Amino acid sequence: MGISVHPADGSDVDMLLKKADAALSFAKAAGGATYRFYTPEMTAQAVKAVALDRDLRQALQRHEFRLHYQPLYDALSERIVGAEALIRWQHPERGFVSPMDFIPLAEARGLIGPIGEWAFNEACRQGQAWRKAGLPNIPIAVNVSPAQLRDRTFINGGARSLRDGKCAPNAGHLEITESGAMERGEETIGMLREFKAMGLGLSVDDFGTGYSSLSHLNRMPIDKLKIDRSFVKGLPGDGDDAAIVTAILDMAKALKLKVVAEGVETRAQFDFLKANGCDKIQGYLFGKPLAPDDFMALARQQRALAA
């Protein structure tokens, strides 16, 4: 429910309804089953959202998106074994726009499909460029929204990229959130199997924050679980977080799945995860998201040190 109050919010019916409708949109954004009173800030935010929506629709054509790559490290060797592609929007006037601001808007406006397809193709292109520059094959993970999983255009586009050689076998990896993996049951499992048949790796991201059942998880053609950073943050001192993380690691081992811990920022967190059998590590302890050239320089430096 959205609520406006006379006379503070308006002196006529049309104005009161317009402002109540603005409040309603905020109530819906809060998850529904709630209410919001209109405030002047709502109008300012709505104007900002409209402008951002307009700019977002033009961003692809203007080539304003970039991918940065956060290195993924093997816990035992502490060497780079992959990367996660993270989208960045460099707006010509606003500067850097956080994904937290534009990704939900893209999903709400139906724009996540073309943006996601661009990100997948760009990650494939970058992987090819690194291989031509002499780097070994570096699997690149790309985040996929539930909306993309329901979109045959995205699935067909991925198949076309693989068929045309834009993405090397075993070089592409898709990450879907735990809540997204649970949506639409059998239909989602079927689509994930299609991706798997193409030669793409599959991970369940933000694991531990959703409500997946073990039977459902066991039937999904996934390779990895990514422990959500909210559980890593308290390690090793928080007993609850430690119990959850060790339970996830034990379960993954039983299901023959690899485990990635994200958000690792301290050596104490890393030591705990390594001692308990975590396979791969991602976080600021080892590396922040990097521009493509910086990532390549880091990978080359690591190879030189190993030689």
Describe what you observe in this structure.
The longest helix has 21 residues. The termini are far apart. The chain has two domains: about 50 residues, no CATH class; about 240 residues, TIM Barrel. The chain is about 50% helix and about 20% strand. An eight-stranded mixed beta barrel has the order 3-4-6-7-8-9-10-11, surrounded by four helices. A two-stranded parallel sheet has the order 1-2. The protein has about 300 residues and is α/β, with parallel strands linked by helices. The protein is globular and about 75 Å long. It contains 13 helices and eleven strands.
Quickly describe the structure.
By secondary structure, the chain is an alpha/beta fold. It has helices spanning about 15-30, 40-60, 100-110, 110-130, 145-150, 150-165, 180, 185-195, 215-220, 230, 240-255, 265-275, 290-305, and strands at about 1-5, 35, 65-75, 80-90, 95, 140-145, 170-175, 200-205, 225, 260, 280. The model has no long low-confidence stretch (mean pLDDT about 90).
What's the architecture of the largest domain, going by CATH?
Alpha-Beta Barrel
For the biggest β-sheet, the strand order reads 3-4-6-7-8-9-10-11
Helix content percent band? 40-55%
Main sheet: strands, sense, barrel: 8 strands, mixed, barrel
Q: What is the fold-level CATH name, i.e. the topology of the largest domain? A: TIM Barrel
**Ranges with pLDDT <50 over ≥5 residues?**
none
Order of helices and strands: EHEHEEEHHEHHEHHEHEHHEHEH
Question: How would you name the CATH homologous superfamily of the largest domain?
Answer: EAL domain
Tally of extended strands? 11
Radius of gyration: 22 Å
> How would the global form be characterised?
globular
Strand content: 15-25%
In CATH, what is the class of the largest domain?
Answer: Alpha Beta
Q: Average pLDDT value? A: 89
Q: How far is it from the N-terminal to the C-terminal residue, by CA? A: 65 Å
What is the total number of structural domains?
Answer: 2
The secondary structure category is alpha/beta
